[in-house]
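queue> pop job 88
queue> type: inverse folding (structure -> sequence)
queue> payload:
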């Protein structure tokens, strides 16, 4: 064993290294901590600023996409309501024409058919065709509105 005041060497023969922290006293609360270097701080701030700019740019793009979708939904809703009004009007016209045709069919038939029967029948056929077209448009608008609401375009 080594004497009490001497340090014992390691297995390699060198003396043990001393930890310099054990010789110093910890800083008091009044002292500000010393930074190792001020170099990395501006780089970190620059990186954070560039990341913030990128995130703001992405948010702006997302806001633009959202606004576009909202405009599409509003346009589709207006078109749908217009088509619904047109379908209602055409439905009323068809009902009126059907009533006129049935009235004329129930009337006594002269040897010569009334000239208005053929005209009303062709008007009825045209109105039925337009009603079918409007109902098809309305169905497509409902589909587009559903797509716009789900974000599928």
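queue> result:
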């Amino acid at each position: 064993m080594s004497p009490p005041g001497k340090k014992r060497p390691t297995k390699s023969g060198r003396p043990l290294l001393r930890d310099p922290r054990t010789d110093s006293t910890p800083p008091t609360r009044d002292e500000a901590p010393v930074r190792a270097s001020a170099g990395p701080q501006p780089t970190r701030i620059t990186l954070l600023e560039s990341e913030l700019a990128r995130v703001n740019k992405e948010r702006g793009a997302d806001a633009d996409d959202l606004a576009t979708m909202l405009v599409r939904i509003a346009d589709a809703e207006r078109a749908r309501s217009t088509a619904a009004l047109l379908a209602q009007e055409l439905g009323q016209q068809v009902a009126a024409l059907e009533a006129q045709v049935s009235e004329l069919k129930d009337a006594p038939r002269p040897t010569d058919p009334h000239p208005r029967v053929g005209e009303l029948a062709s008007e009825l056929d045209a109105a039925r065709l337009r009603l079918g077209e409007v109902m098809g448009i309305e169905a497509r608008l409902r589909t587009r509105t559903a797509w716009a609401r789900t974000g599928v375009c």
